Every structure is written in C-alpha cells, then in structure tokens.
Amino acid sequence: MGKILGIAIQNYGSLKNIKMGKLYSDQSGSELGNMVAIIGPSGNGKSTLADAFGFISDCLSTDVESACDANNRGGYDQLISQGSSDPIHFELYYKENSNSRPITYELTIAKDRYDRPYVKEERLRQRRPGQKNGRPLSFLHLIDGKGFAFEGKDGGQDDEDGSVEGEKINVELADTRKFGIVTLGAMKQYARIELFLDFLKSWYLCYFAPDAARQIQTAAPAQYLNRTGSNLNNVAQYMYRENPTEFKKVLAEIQTKIPNITKIEPVKLKNGQMVLEFWQNGFSEPFFSTRMSDGTLKLFAYYLLLHERNPRQLVFVEEPENGLYHHYLANLAIEMRKSVGSGYSKQLFVTTHSPFFVNALSPEEVWVLEKGQDGFSIARQASSYEFVKELVSEGAAMGDLWYSEYFG
Ligand SMILES: Nc1ncnc2c1ncn2[C@@H]1O[C@H](COP(=O)(O)OP(=O)(O)OP(=O)(O)O)[C@@H](O)[C@H]1O
Ligand SMILES: [Mg+2]
C-alpha cells in the first residue's frame, strides 16, 4: 500500500528543478492522483522523468555509482543538469494509506573527493501521531553515511531544537554508494524504513517490447512482468497456478477488450510449460501467443498488468500508444484509470503523445512538461490552465484541446 503525493527533482538531466503535486517543502500543490499522465513535445523531459524513477529503483538494487552508469545514463557527469554545480536531489512525499501520516524522503547524490558518485544525504521525516500540522521529526538522517535512525513505528528528532522522542540509534554506513534505507530497511527494528523501502522496491517501469514477449520461455512461473514483458507466459503460468478459476475469469475479461479475439486459453504443455492460445474471429484453430500481432500482444500485456495479483504499487508506462491502433487508446486509458481506483493500492504514471489516450483523462490527471526560458523543463498540471478547466466542464475532451493547441 502507498502512493506518492508529490515529487520534486533537481539537477537530473533536463529536470533541473521540477515539482509535481504536494510536498513537505511546498504544500501549495494538490496531491498527485492515482493516474498521472505526462505529455509535452519531444525533448521536454518525459523519458527523463520516467528514468528518474528508474534511477532510484536501480540504486536500490545496486549502488548510486552503478545506477549512474546503467541504462545509457552515461555516468554522473552526463546525468547532472548541464552547467549545474549543485548535486542531484530528490524529494518524495509519500503516504501509506488514508489514515497514515505522510513521509518525506530526501536524497542527495553528489561526487566524493575521488570524483565518484555517492549518497551525500538521506533523510526520512514524519509528523508525530495525531498531528496534522507542525514540524515533522527526522527518523533517519545520514550525511556522508553518518547519522542516526529511529527504531519502531514512532519517534524521531526535531531538526530545530534537537529534542529526541523514541529509540535513537547512531549509524555509520560502510559503503556510502549504497542507500541507507536499503541497509537499515533490511532490519526488523526499523519498521518504518522497511515499509518505505518495500514501497520503493515495488515500483515497475514498463518498456514492453512485443518481440521480447514472443521468445520461447521456459516453464518458470513469475509473479510479475519484467521490464520488456519477455516473461509474459511465465506470468500467465503463475497466475494460473495460483488460482486457475480466477485466471480464466481474467482472461475472459481481457478478451472482451481485445478486438477480434473471441477467447484466450491457457494450455499446459507436457514439459510443464504453459502457452496461451488466442482464438480469432474466422478461424477454426487457435494461434499461440508467439504468432499474435504486436498490438494484440501489447494490449494483452497491459491488461494483464492491470490484473496482477498483489499489484505493484507504482507503475510507470512509457508511451503505451506505440504500435497500438488509435481507437484502442481511450479504452485503455479508461481501464487503466479504473484499475488504479482512488485508494492507496496502485498508482500509474504514463507518458504519452496520444490525444486519443488523453481524451479519456481529466485536467487534474494530465501534467505538461514545458521548456522554460533556460532550456530546462517545468511541470505544469493541465488544471492550472483556467480556460482548459472551463472548456472541459463544458464538455470538451482533454486530448482534443491539446491537439488544438489550447495547452501543452
Ligand atoms: N545533462 C543534461 N542536462 C540538461 N539537459 C539534458 C541533459 N542530458 C540530456 N538533456 C536533454 O534532456 C532532454 C531529454 O529529453 P527526453 O528524452 O526526456 O524527452 P522526451 O520528452 O521523452 O521526448 P520524446 O517525446 O522524444 O520521447 C533532451 O532534450 C536532452 O538534450
Ligand atoms: Mg521520451
């Protein structure tokens, strides 16, 4: 459970200083919803934003130095906003559920005296139980790998007067290239850090590639789709194994969303492997998933993603429209929104160039990345354009307004 109410990023490529939603450091914005679509012309930082989420994920599984080099990032010097001498900085404002107190996570990545990227500062803060206002207490604060953490579910240190509530433990990390939350979140006594770490670990960046999904897969059930979707059949196998009746229901529902497909059936091969058969209008025999069209496979993967058991809490999809017939996109957007609901179990970020996709969304759900005077990106919620809100309330569709250049 959990979602991001706001995010601020500084000095990450073209994102020199962007803010989205509500933050501890700036409470003026409204909380991000469960569906966040990001639009804007090419080069305005949409993929950079997706990559910022990917960067944090990569840091969790490796370390900041490896993450700076991974996924074509080209190392710290390429990654830092050009001309900036300040470090990379992230602020996440996060809430576990409707009753919990928001948590602020701040992370600063800089270069050490050997010119290697490291975690310069990391801090987690939360208000006292029952408090709606007032200063939050830091329950983790590390500078250059040294500082403190608080055990248990409450407590912390007041940053201004230094007063301490709860169990404070002094901490020194052996490796400053690794996140403190990873080291400490592995220990039961740091329950709040563990919970927050679990949330970050559950992020999923989706770069679905139909060709990858066509590869023959060995029989190995997998709970979640991987980055490219190459384990599509393994996920189907897992879902079937966990609950065959429910999985067949899911397939029956997905089938209604994929035009021309009359039935999708899991078939178990003698070697234990599972394949999916797609029954298509006009044919007496089904086709294996390896023979399906790019668009059909893609649509199937997206809908499977929306039906995951124990869904990942934050999913980032880049340009779902690629390779999909434009008439499917409004439906996909509606289904995505339906799937995330309004609670705290799922949040979906989507970058898109498609007005058809955006047509299904509200001004609050759409964010525009614009280029500022200095060439760096600025994030603006579409609802902040008053005339857009007015026109939508009179029945205009967001995608049409965008296409007609009323905004974006
Ligand atoms: N270190 C950096 N400092 C500042 N800007 C950078 C840096 N590295 C890359 N850029 C710029 O950031 C932009 C990155 O664009 P990005 O790929 O995020 O755009 P996009 O909105 O996804 O575009 P598209 O619609 O084409 O996918 C490019 O214009 C690139 O020149
Ligand atoms: Mg892009």
Features:
19 strands, 28% helix, single chain, binds adenosine-5'-triphosphate, six-stranded mixed beta sheet, binds magnesium ion, globular, alpha+beta, 2 domains, 408 residues, eight-stranded antiparallel beta sheet, 13 helices
Give a structural overview:
The protein starts with a strand and ends in a 5-residue tail after the last helix. Helix 7 crosses helix 8 (244-257) and helix 9 runs parallel beside helix 10 (329-340). The chain has helices at 46-61, 64-69, 76-79, 180-185, 191-201, 210-214, 232-242, 244-257, 294-306, 329-340, 355-358, 386-393, 398-403; strands spanning 3-12, 15-21, 35-39, 88-95, 103-111, 117-126, 137-143, 146-150, 156-157, 164-165, 168-172, 203-206, 261-268, 274-280, 287-288, 314-318, 347-351, 366-371, 377-381. The chain folds into two domains: 3-202, no CATH class; 205-311, no CATH class. The chain is 28% helix and 27% strand. It is of the alpha+beta class and 408 residues long. The radius of gyration is 23 Å and the shape is globular. The strands form four sheets. An eight-stranded antiparallel β-sheet has the order 2-1-4-5-6-7-8-11. The chain has a six-stranded mixed β-sheet with strand order 12-16-17-3-18-19. It has a three-stranded antiparallel β-sheet with strand order 13-14-15. The structure holds adenosine-5'-triphosphate and magnesium ion (MG).
Short recap of the structure:
The chain is α+β, with helices and mostly antiparallel strands and 408 residues long. Helices cover 28% and strands 27% of the residues. The protein has two domains: 3-202, no CATH class; 205-311, no CATH class.
